[in-house]
Write a structure and sequence with these properties.
single chain, alpha+beta, Rhopdopsin 7-helix transmembrane proteins, Jelly Rolls, 10 helices, 12 strands, 47% helix
Length: 452
């Protein structure tokens, strides 16, 4: 067996085995349904908090408060719904309370729009406190033991505060089922907080459901379902045109054309799988891990093969050289490492809770992908330079002109991609951004990734 065939067989076998193992162990991944599994609160100087989620939400299209909790009347509603959210305090904390006392520990759920972030805490009182102390309570600015909140004069009900109190010596307390309707488009955050130091060690379990008017897709992902639908049709048309040309020029087909066909087919499958994955996510609020895993892997394989294809074309494969010779193993090794790095990044990005703008840990996985992309770019342009030099020496003017145009197009594409990536980095590291509302940004991001 040739070296190239051995690499291909090993790559495909490992890839299929990886997909099968992951798919057999997991059923679904939470998304706009945020699950809490006995998670702890983070200590601050005078408070404890737990981040319950953050997403971009569009305003409700209908305003009937009686329909928010009804599964049959959810269309057009935008809300954050609390389901089975339970707080569990330590036995020591519970034992210190009086059996007959009604309120022996207060936990608050705070829902706020990003523009109201300065209204939570004592900032408006020129204080660094989060919780109300006796001095501030004496002025009437807040209630002792509660989180300090300044109501928005334009919308007195916001930021929204939902209080839940422990009773007697009970170790657990469950929030009342409640849904907070969203009547203003914006970026929303949910925090669970308490001020009582005796509640230290309290855990939270349950879930919250975040829904937009047209489904469960978060704000920044809402336009993408339409995008993937359009791209599926575009790839279908491209595939049809390519197939007709392929048949028409059958006698002139070289091995390189088969590789291009494979990339087009992968792109078609990728867009179709992403569309159905997003459609399912939008209707159920959950992402089946099997579908998501296949969609992610189609994307990774297409990206890897696209870069390998650009590299071998730049080397003159099928034009000035019939084979790659001794560098085949190095090309395949770079492709293998890129596939692993890109697959890891895509899995982290698309699996787990969808908290808009909160995935800073992805930076660790972006770095190796960016490094390998740089390796591809340097190798591609270095190879193009050598190929152009060979064509000039052979005075092959037709192929020389073709490769010069290819070099120019590739250079422009790389510059545009780098510029867009720079914008995305600035955009992603602006936690208070609400640019997700603009569909063109979400679509441009996906289109740039598709081109790359």
């Amino acid at each position: 067996m040739e070296e190239g065939e051995f690499w291909k067989l090993g790559f495909l076998s490992g890839f299929v085995l990886f997909i099968t193992i992951i798919n057999s162990h997991l059923a679904s991944v939470s998304a706009s349904i945020h699950e809490y599994s006995n998670e702890g609160f983070i200590a601050q100087p005078d408070a404890f908090f737990f981040h319950g989620g953050s997403e971009g939400l569009y305003a409700s299209k209908v305003h009937d408060s009686s329909a928010v909790t009804s599964e049959n009347h959810l269309q057009g509603k935008s809300f954050i719904r609390f389901e089975d959210v339970t707080f569990v305090r330590t036995k020591e904390a519970a034992s210190q309370q009086h059996e007959m006392q009604q309120n022996t520990g207060l936990v608050e759920a705070i829902v706020l729009e990003v523009k109201d972030r300065e209204r939570v805490g004592g900032g408006f009182l020129k204080s660094n406190l989060i919780c109300c102390n006796p001095t501030l309570a004496a002025t009437g600015a807040c209630k002792l033991g509660e989180v300090i909140i300044q109501k928005n004069p334009d919308n007195p009900e916001w930021p929204k505060r939902i209080q839940t109190s422990f009773a007697g010596k009970n170790e657990e307390v469950k929030m009342q089922p409640e849904a907070v309707e969203i009547n203003s488009t914006g970026m929303y955050y949910l925090y669970f907080m308490f001020c009582d130091p005796q509640l230290k060690g309290t855990l939270i379990k349950g879930r919250t459901v975040w829904k937009n008017p047209n489904g469960y897709l978060p704000g920044k992902m809402t336009p993408l379902m339409t995008f993937y639908g359009i791209m599926s049709l575009a790839y279908l048309v491209l595939g049809l045109v390519w197939f007709l040309k392929f048949v028409q020029l059958w006698k002139d087909v070289i091995q390189l054309h088969y590789h291009i066909t494979a990339v087009i087919a992968l792109g078609m499958c990728e867009m179709a799988v992403w569309y159905f994955e997003y459609a399912n996510f939008n209707s159920t609020g959950r992402r089946p891990i099997g579908v998501t895993l296949w969609a992610v892997t189609f994307t990774t394989v297409k990206k890897t093969l696209s870069r390998l294809l650009l590299l071998v074309v730049s080397m003159g494969f099928g034009v000035v050289r019939p084979t790659l010779g001794g560098i085949t193993s190095r090309v395949l090794l770079l492709g293998f490492f890129y596939f692993i790095a890109c697959e890891a990044l895509e899995l982290v990005e698309h699996m787990g809770n969808v908290n808009d703008f909160s995935k800073r840990t992805e930076l660790l996985l972006v770095l190796p992908v960016a490094f390998l992309d740089s390796c591809f770019i340097l190798w591609i342009f270095s190879s193009l330079s050598k190929t152009l030099e060979k064509l000039q020496m052979r005075r092959n003017l037709v192929k020389l002109e073709l490769y010069q145009r290819f070099t120019n197009y590739l250079a422009v594409s790389v510059l545009l991609s780098i510029a867009w990536i720079g914008f995305e980095v600035l955009f992603s590291f602006t936690p208070c951004s609400v640019y997700y509302q603009t569909p063109i940004l979400s679509m441009c991001t996906s289109f740039t990734c598709t081109l790359m």
